[in-house]
Amino acid sequence: MSEVQRRKYSQEEKNSIFDGEFMPHIDSMYNFAYRLTFDEDDAKDLVQDTYLKAYRFINSFEQGTNAKAWLFRILKNSFINEYRKKSKQPAKVDYQEVETYYNSDDVDFRGTTDLRAESVKDMLGDEISNALNSLAVDFRTVIILCDLEGFTYEEMAKILDIPIGTVRSRLHRARNLLKEKLKGYAQHMGYDTEEEE
Amino acid sequence: MPSTWGMTRKRRNNYRIRMEMNQESSGQRKMECSDVNKCFELLESILDGEMGDPGKEVLKEKLAKCQPCFEHFHLEQAIREVLKNKCTKQAVPNELAKSIREKIQEVK
């Protein structure tokens, strides 16, 4: 969130920004929150907290700019700072470790070349969803932002506080991991893959 | 058309892919990509709409000349489509918007 208070909105302007620019994104916000927390109540709390913070810091939002990206950034930071800590899930893998591991050239695309586009097209929504949900949160997040929400790399860089180059390479790695998961489904479900019998 | 009986499934698949390729393009594509990782990352950026019009030109050339790029492109495109169209949307709880507005009223 920008530290600079750019302006002071009147109460009327605040209401208009909140209703006209913030609230229309509640569906996307809730879906993002749900895919981060996997829990309806946590997702509700996270979205509610995000909107309260957005209101509190409304003076640092410049009217007419990208409200959705601004809100997503608040939501993602709230998730990292609060929800991840209290989450009952087992300790997360240290992200640095994950990044370094997948940075190595061994985890290349080679292993997944036998996943066919046709098999992917035949998959069910639940299978796609489960594959996405099984990714580590940082990889899951870039795919949600890019493919489900349609953010540009530049917007994602701002939401995640990382350079664009990192967005690009993290997405690439996330997609390779997703393909591995999808290949697993394809084989399990007996879809046509090119595995040797 | 020769019989595919007796081939392994993999070979049948490769055969089928080759037949599809022949129908889609008459040109010859190289079967090896010299820098798969770089190329695929670039392809993905193009698919994500990050390269603008110059990206479309690069894409056209790659698809015409490089078999691994061609296959990767179609796979990536399929994945983007299913993610966009099939990923289940979680219904937003009815009372959420209302409760947010109430909370905002309290802090006003």
Outline of this structure?
With 197 residues, chain A is mainly α. Chain A is 66% helix and 0% strand. Chain A has two domains: 11-86, Rna Polymerase Sigma Factor, Chain: A (Orthogonal Bundle), CATH 1.10.1740; 95-188, Arc Repressor Mutant, subunit A.
How is the secondary structure organized here?
The complex is a heterodimer of chains A (197) and B (108).
Chain A: H1 11-22, H2 26-37, H3 40-56, H4 67-86, H5 95-103, H6 117-122, H7 125-133, H8 137-148, H9 153-160, H10 164-188
Helix pairs in contact in A: 2-3, 2-4, 3-4, 4-9, 7-10, 8-10, 9-10
Chain B: H1 9-24, H2 36-47, H3 52-65, H4 67-86, H5 94-107
Helix pairs in contact in B: 2-4, 3-4
Detailed description of the structure:
The complex is a heterodimer of chains A (197) and B (108). Chain A is elongated, with a radius of gyration of 19 Å. By secondary structure, chain A is mainly alpha-helical. Chain A is built from ten helices and no strands. Chain A folds into two domains: 76 residues, Rna Polymerase Sigma Factor, Chain: A (Orthogonal Bundle), CATH 1.10.1740; 94 residues, Arc Repressor Mutant, subunit A (Orthogonal Bundle), CATH 1.10.10.10. Chain A is 66% helix and 0% strand. Chain B has 108 residues and is mainly α. Chain B has one domain. Chain B contains five helices and no strands. About 6% of the residues of chain B have low confidence. Classes of the chains: A mainly alpha (197), B mainly alpha (108). At the A-B interface, helix 2, helix 3, helix 6, helix 7 and helix 8 of A face helix 1, helix 2, helix 4 and helix 5 of B.
Radius of gyration of chain B: 23 Å
Q: Largest interface, by Cβ-Cβ below 8 angstroms: which chains and how many residues each?
A: A-B, 56 and 43 residues
How many structural domains of chain A? 2
Task: Write down the overall geometry of chain A.
Answer: elongated
Number of helices of chain A: 10
Largest sheet of chain A: none
Quaternary state of this entry equals: heterodimer
User: Tell me about the biggest sheet of chain B?
Assistant: none
Indicate the percent of residues in helices of chain A.
Answer: 55-70%
Cα distance spanning the termini of chain B = 76 Å
* Count of DSSP strands of chain B: 0
Q: In whole angstroms, how far apart are the ends of chain A?
A: 54 Å
Ranges of chain A where pLDDT stays below 50 over 5 or more residues in a row are 90-94, 103-108
Number of strands of chain A: 0
Name the beta content range of chain B.
under 5%
β-strand percent of chain A reads under 5%
Uncertain runs of chain B: 17-23
Number of helices of chain B: 5
| SSE pattern of chain A | HHHHHHHHHH
Mean pLDDT of chain A: 84
Number of domain modules of chain B: 1
